[in-house]
Amino acid sequence: MFTPGFRLFFGFFFAAVAAAAVYGVASGSAGETEYFAVLNVETWVGVLSLGYKGGIGDHVGYVVLMGFALLSALVGVFLVAFRDADAESVGELMDDGQTPETQDDLEANYWPAVAAFGVGAIIVGLVTHATIFVIGLVIVGAAVFEWMLTAWADRATADPTVNRNLRNRIMRPIEYPVTAALGVAVLVLALSRVLLTVSQFSAVIVAGVVATAIFFIAVVFAVVPKISRSVIAGTVAVICVGVLVAGVITAAMGSRDFHHIGPASEHGEPEDGEH
Q1: Which of 15, 107, 236, 249 is 20 to 30 Å from 75 at the Cα level?
Q2: pLDDT tens digits for 28-55?
Q3: What is the DSSP letter of 83?
């Protein structure tokens, strides 16, 4: 009934909960006792109620351990729901009890490269801009989720076409709107960093060149017949990566100085101010 992966991660769950309870009590205030808060009832109430009532010792360590426990429980639930993507576990649910065939040759999976790019964005964001750090977190989270689902679909049956259709049926209604929204947001943010860094005249030129290039590429895709999806996806990916890299570099350089014209003085001349 319970798959090996489920048992493994729920073992992590119970171990992390026990470790969090021990750590929350042992790092607490002993009060009038001399036993590292072991006999302090208020500390035990705080640990068992997740801090709702009572007190907890070191909150950082307790939250880290409980967070690990929660993630382990979620992974265990996913594994038992998808039967570990294991043929023997899936065979247990079959009426005849026979183990289905598995697929030996898997399709190319690009999500590890996307996750690595997200990790790089996180590292760069730590030293440049908080927005880039958040974007990196979003990329890594999406890549890990897609990676897990793709790995499950690749091993669902022995037919690659069926596996692909199974994955697309689940993810396409989510991928299309979310990817479009995130892509537009990232491109607008990255391009805005570029326009805020260069001079006012250069910003007009950059915006015009980017708009012309996008229009030209869209016309080529619409006019030229029989362009493969791989070429379209590769071209779009190269453009997005280029704009994002330019945005990261210009964000690290900082914005240019902006000057605005202040209110008129007594002699009718405007006063220059810096914003």
Answers
A1: 107
A2: 654 444 444 455 666 677 777 776 666 6
A3: G
Give the H/E segment covering residue 271: strand 270-274
pTM of the entire predicted model: 0.44
Residue 111 Rama label (left phi>0; alpha psi -120 to 50; beta): alpha
Q: Residue holding tokens 């350089």?
A: 253
Pair 10, 76: CB distance under 8 Å: yes
Task: Return d(Cα 257, Cα 57) in angstroms, integer.
Answer: 48
The CB density around residue 110, as the number of other CB atoms within 10 Å, is 13
Contact status, residue 102 vs residue 119, Cβ threshold 8 Å: no
CA atoms of 20 and 17, how far apart (whole Å): 5
Q: Is the pLDDT of residue 265 over 60?
A: no
- 264 burial via Cβ count (<10 Å: 0-12, 13-18, 19+): exposed
